[in-house]
């Protein structure tokens, strides 16, 4: 047998001959001849919450099937009805990866797995495997608070949401990220598996094997209980699932004691955004519109505000907050609210003057940005007065800019947002800024297609990586305008009285951030602003999934970008920077210090490191449900991720069952013959291997 590309590919049954008759066979070299590994894939994995499991898994030894390429819906008939060689591994065109097709495949035993090819260009009709009502049940609206708005009764925010990510599949599903590997599979299918004249193809057939067995089952309650019992009674506990967790990133305009408590009379304005995203496949979460556009705008606004000359004189402080895990029922924001309520955070809820959140701002129509408020809390007269003041300041700050701010309407509820978790605890005046009045403009919410192209990022051809990093796109200019309006509004809201025309976000900085967070993390700017001991986090393609190991790349980079944009370079040695408590004037309780790599010297490979002082801090983004061991909670997020041992995919040629049986029988026969021969040879060894006497020898 040979591969589609012409290389040797031995049929699996031939391995038995090697095992039984050729003792010199090398396992690794044989495996290379049998299998072609698929190295650029992303699996669908199992996630669990308090009530159920979602995602995918293979059997414990992996699932195997004959490959069939499905490029149009009619091709499914061969898999589901006509094909004579089930079960099948389907290579599915990305345009057919939808709920209708997937539910057909879910209900049959003739499918053993699925490999999905990325659709290029993105599906024009849109694709969102998320829910139509994201984070339903964990926001502020319920039967007790604004029941008319609960469960998206008033507004369906994500109408293209299919809920596919929240289905449970009992077969493995992998994404093929490399077009070349997709072509290799298609060529193997063309050479061996294409039906001839309506009849089935002849052996050998091209097959695929997918490994993605998950350890956790049923729900978070079940898997956490099992892990807890293992940890209690076992010397070598085997944990089967882990909570989704990470860190929130936060900083303040005026420094505060991060280990103390802010004066109850001191008012603080919270500016918030999320920094995580999600898609159907594990760690594939580009999140261009759903996350990156908003947190990049937030970072640019923070830089613009810090450059104002009188920020230290402002009546109110401003806290810039970046929440992790918001995709999964508001992990980060619910934890911060919990910590504030339990006095485990420098701020209390009573310190919050108002709340401004940036949430999907890149796809504006006619440069309009919509201001969403909570109609229920505005029924309180004092809250209404403060919300009206907030809206007026925002609207006035947009005058003369290329951004128009409009109210979404008094009867319109809040979209899915971190602000909702704060409202659950206390009536806080606040506004959520979005590019949509009702349903999302984003047709690829929580999907692998929420890419730079989705927010219209375009670069001229022929640019080097360094030129691309510095190139100012129209998207960057647009988001910089939003950041400018937000920064000016925050200045006014904090009590600033000077002219705000000098407060201006930098489009070049926005361009760098968009490039780094959406196209290539491993770029010269990111390299220069991080610590030397974490430079390994700079992978190629950025992803923004919250994960179970922390901090993830996105959290680290938001932390160091924020420190770079809002911090101060201080004249400290490396030793002093790493141990600021030894320097009397460092004010360690107010500031964080970081020794960063710095830029490369001209015509050199060495860097010029320096020390950055900032007010940037991290706080836990672990759901309170796990702190309280309330794994069945309906108040807090309970999402966990299953553990697994190995995940990989490969293709190979498979022989007919008859040939496999014949090969096995011949192998067993050779083995039995070898054992019998060995027995008789051993029994007659004294005869067969005796040493003859030398006839010339003389005995004395």
TrEMBL record:
The keyword Cytoplasm does not apply. The chain crosses the membrane at residues 661-681. One of its GO terms (biological process) is Notch receptor processing. Residues 43-216 form the Nicastrin small lobe domain. InterPro entries: Ncstrn_small, Nicastrin. One of its GO terms (cellular component) is endomembrane system. This is Nicastrin. The lineage of its organism: Eukaryota, Metazoa, Chordata, Craniata, Vertebrata.
